[in-house]
Design brief:
mainly alpha, 2 helices, elongated, about 60 residues
Length: about 60
């Protein structure tokens, strides 16, 4: 990873925090030159079983 790449990531994160984003998950892969943003309403982690509705209500 180049220094400029790191600076770009820091800038992106600073902009998100300044805009009021309170939860950020970052996955960095070598060799990929793209940014993908996923937004989820609520407090569940993006892509978690809770956020995707895969968790079922089990009878106790």
């Amino acid at each position: 990873m180049k220094d400029q790449d790191i600076e770009n990531i820091i800038k992106l994160l600073d902009e998100k925090v300044s805009a009021g984003v309170s939860r950020i998950k970052v996955d960095v892969s070598e060799g990929e030159d793209s940014v993908k943003e996923v937004y989820h309403h609520g407090r569940c982690d993006v892509g978690s079983p809770w956020a995707t509705g895969k968790v079922r209500n089990f009878d106790c």
